């Protein structure tokens, strides 16, 4: 489906330029669809302050970005790619529920987040990319928000070896299919683990410049 624009947020979010040294821009507001979309368009994303603290809006510096031509696929990961089938948006609720499993270390996705992103999914803005075994088991996946040429990755999970990485490979293949150089794959914070996949840290100013260009790009066909 084509995304449906929700009513605008009742909140006026600050500029991403107002972030503190930790990347925190603001605290409060809500998770209504209009607020979430305004945040992503402004270079921010929501996450609690601490594991169970108040709702925060973040714009890290540096920002984790994966160039679509920069994904590092090892030989073993290429073998794993043959073990799974990639599907899009066939099990969004199952993917976000797996990402929100409270048994996961560092888990922060509350029922409120699940409901909010479920609503974004129903409106055509949030998507899941899933790795399925050939006998029909959901082995891993990821979810995030797509706005024009931006895909803002939120979380991923795996139940079998390399399944979340295979879902990421599938996502990159679909985002780069039309060759539009404006597309941005945002992964929030750069980490050592993500660096092994090709994620780099981009200065906030550069990220916001790339974001502005990405928002002018059309939605990729993989979400339609």
UniProtKB/TrEMBL annotation:
Subcellular location: Cytoplasm
Catalysed conversion reaction: N-terminal L-lysyl-[protein] + L-leucyl-tRNA(Leu) = N-terminal L-leucyl-L-lysyl-[protein] + tRNA(Leu) + H(+); L-phenylalanyl-tRNA(Phe) + an N-terminal L-alpha-aminoacyl-[protein] = an N-terminal L-phenylalanyl-L-alpha-aminoacyl-[protein] + tRNA(Phe); N-terminal L-arginyl-[protein] + L-leucyl-tRNA(Leu) = N-terminal L-leucyl-L-arginyl-[protein] + tRNA(Leu) + H(+)
Gene Ontology CC terms: cytoplasm
GO-annotated biological processes: protein catabolic process
Class of the enzyme per the UniProt entry, highest EC level: transferase
Pfam family, one: Leu_Phe_trans
Keywords: Acyltransferase, Cytoplasm, Transferase
Record Gene3D superfamilies: Leucyl/phenylalanyl-tRNA-protein transferase, C-terminal domain, Leucyl/phenylalanyl-tRNA-protein transferase, N-terminal domain
HAMAP family for the chain: Leu_Phe_trans
Protein name listed in UniProt: Leucyl/phenylalanyl-tRNA--protein transferase
Organism of origin: Actinomarinicola tropica
Gene: aat
């Amino acid at each position: 489906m084509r995304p449906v624009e929700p009513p605008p947020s009742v909140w006026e979010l600050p500029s991403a330029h107002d972030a503190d040294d930790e990347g925190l821009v603001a605290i409060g507001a809500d998770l209504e669809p209009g607020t979430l979309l305004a945040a992503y368009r402004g270079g921010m994303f929501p996450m609690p302050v601490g594991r169970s603290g108040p709702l925060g809006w973040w714009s890290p510096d540096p920002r984790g970005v994966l160039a679509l031509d920069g994904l590092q696929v090892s030989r073993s990961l290429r073998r794993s790619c043959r073990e799974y089938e990639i599907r899009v948006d066939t099990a969004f609720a199952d993917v976000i529920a797996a990402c929100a499993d409270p048994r996961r270390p560092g888990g922060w996705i509350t029922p409120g987040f699940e409901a909010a992103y479920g609503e974004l999914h129903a409106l055509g803005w949030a998507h899941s990319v899933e790795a399925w075994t050939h006998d029909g088991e959901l082995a891993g996946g990821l979810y995030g928000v797509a706005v024009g040429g931006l895909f803002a990755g939120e979380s991923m999970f795996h139940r079998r070896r390399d399944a979340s990485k295979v879902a990421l490979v599938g996502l990159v293949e679909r985002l780069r299919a039309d060759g539009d150089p404006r597309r941005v794959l945002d992964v929030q914070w750069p980490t050592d683990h993500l660096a092994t996949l090709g994620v780099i840290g981009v200065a906030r100013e550069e990220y916001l410049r790339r974001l502005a260009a990405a928002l002018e790009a059309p939605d990729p066909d993989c979400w339609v």
